[in-house]
Amino acid sequence: MATPFDVRWWLRPTVLLLLWAGLCPDLGRSPDENGNRFSEGQRPSAHQTAEPFQASQTKAPSVAKVDPPSWWAGHTINPVRLLVRGQNLNGARVLSNSRALQVSEVLVNHAGTYLFVNVSINSKARPGSYPLKLITRQGSTTIPFTLKASLATSTNFQGITADDVIYLIMPDRFADGDQSNNTPADAPAAANDRKNPRAYHGGDLRGVINHLPYLKELGVTALWLNPWYDNWNGVNNCEKPWCPNTYYHGYHAIDYYAVEDRFGDLSTLRELVEKAHALGLKIIQDQVANHVGSRHPWVTDPPLDDWFHGTLAQHTVNRFNNSTLLSPHANRDEFRNTLDGWFSDDLPDMNQEEPEVARYEIQNALWWIGTTGIDGIRQDTIQYMPRSFIRDLSNALHRQYPKMWMVGEVFDRDAAHTSFFIGGHRGWDGFDTKLDSVFDFPLWNASLLAFTGKVPLKALREQLKYDALYPDPLRLTVFTNNHDTARFMSLDGATLDGAMMHVAFALSVRGIPQLYYGEEIAMEGKDDPDNRRDFPGGFPGDPRNAFEASGRKQREQKMYEWTRAWLRLRAEHPALRSGSLIDLFYDDDIYVFARRYQNETVIVAFNGSQQEKKITVPVSVVGLKDGATLAVLIGTATNVQVVKGQATLTLPGRTAVAYKLR
Ligand SMILES: [Ca+2]
Ligand SMILES: [Ca+2]
Ligand SMILES: [Ca+2]
């Protein structure tokens, strides 16, 4: 297992190289230059430039790509380590022409196709172009590199708290704001087909920008977009029911440093962040450090032999035996399969225990934040990466951006499992992941079951008691649905009033709520990809526009107004955002809790039965005195007087009511 005391870790070739390098006074000390000076016999690593390969190298070097292409002076990561992709790089030396940059620790792979180099940036260096020179015996070329001015910390990198409500957008399915990007030159016509739920539909960043006022008016405060990394533009064909398909969802990156060309470009993304911030909306990037797409150039030509766990031809596939990640009694083979197995045959698993991979991915996370000004990260499939890496990534984010926030997807319905991954406490393995938040899959599951009538309402309270496992339950991300789960309205037992209670619960219980696009108009959709339907009115030629009241059906409008009302209530009452949660009443049909913060108390009541219910709730336990009035904030109920420390609430069937002490 990946513990800090694992002897195998220290026997890894790269670690040996770094240890050895640290003992060698000659390495990394030259101010302007540091090539590979070691004879092959000295190099314990398989990654070093190999002299025998140089003999067969007859052509001049060339550079095709530099990751990252830019960095900042005064950054907490200094030196930054560049990964340069090219040809004929064996034996390369790298030179800096400027005193602002110093290069060291060059490493080239066997094939001469990748070069790593450290670049130390003088803290007083000014923004601008700082090309590096790459020289081999066969010739020389340039490594383009720039220093950027830092974005303002007062308006960017704000992090996410319980004062926020997140709205998840699948960019391809929300709104098409730029039809000119729908047919890239290298894409077959079948890749863009609104009749195929697995093809691109044309949605993009411009579409999100165009609808920022709609989102502001709805009342959410942060947008999480599914990945905007560049994905392959082609179409997969096969004889299976899921073909033809595309990577419209964005989870198969072919370039960790590029924006999907169908969604826009880096300047469109920056425009989105700036315009969102101007409206008080934050932006959350979906990052996927666990794996890349099988069309990534690394897959046929990896930068290092251990860059991935296995190869396209030979790898294990994750059996998703997630409990082996939690259990101290898991056997090594099962544990390693869950960490190292490919998420699917076309999602090569990154090896974060290779220090070069970890460093690459941490820099990549920070590059996106610094370049775009985003406020948070949603980290995909986070549990399938070593807990030491989650910690190192979290620490690196907070070191540079103190408010930065990352939520991890730990898709599991057991709170013992999800709580193991949130930061703020050490697991049995000695690790504190420092992870800011995890999605509350256990509570999502309980809410779906309760509000579709499959379990009694007290099941909500029975789930919430396991908040005892979390260092701070207010940091959980409570969600109603996401792009991987069937929409509420398409579940067995779903009704509009059930969906309304499900949303009201997420917006009033402890934690940071997250809604899924279209939920505010009660969109339907079974499992993936049916749960990713186009937002009505977001696309050219749509028969109606549900972004406007006039384009909504009656039930859509009812859901919209309800959702907006609860969002406003949450914004107006600190108790609903930051308050402690106190159970007041729970049985098969009813759940009533109070949220208390400083002098404010809000009481929220859910009646899951068809009948009106009259219940007596002990409100003296939350400090309400006789003669006080509980005033209705939302819901069709009447104000109530507190008598003898109790309040008798009359709750209409199948709805939620919120009260406030007056
Ligand atoms: Ca488009
Ligand atoms: Ca693309
Ligand atoms: Ca993994």
The largest sheet has its strands arranged as: 18-17-16-15-12-11-20-19
| Overall average residue pLDDT | 92
Largest sheet: 8 strands, parallel
Strand content: 15-25%
Radius of gyration over alpha carbons? 27 Å
Overall morphology: globular
Identify the bound ligands. calcium ion
What is the fold's blueprint, element by element?
Layout: H1 7-10, H2 13-23, H3 51-56, E1 62-67, E2 70-71, E3 80-87, E4 93-96, E5 101-108, E6 114-121, E7 128-129, E8 132-136, E9 139-143, E10 146-147, E11 166-169, H4 171-174, H5 205-210, H6 212-218, E12 222-225, E13 229-231, E14 253-259, H7 266-278, E15 282-287, H8 323-326, H9 332-340, H10 355-372, E16 376-379, H11 387-400, E17 405-408, H12 415-421, E18 437-438, H13 441-451, H14 458-464, E19 477-479, H15 496-508, E20 512-516, H16 554-572, H17 574-578, E21 580-586, E22 590-597, E23 600-607, E24 613-618, E25 629-634, E26 640-641, E27 646-651, E28 655-661
Parallel strand pairs: 2-10, 11-12, 11-20, 12-15, 15-16, 16-17, 17-18, 19-20
Antiparallel strand pairs: 1-3, 3-6, 4-8, 5-6, 7-10, 8-9, 13-14, 21-22, 22-23, 23-28, 24-27, 25-26, 25-28
The structure holds calcium ion (3 copies).
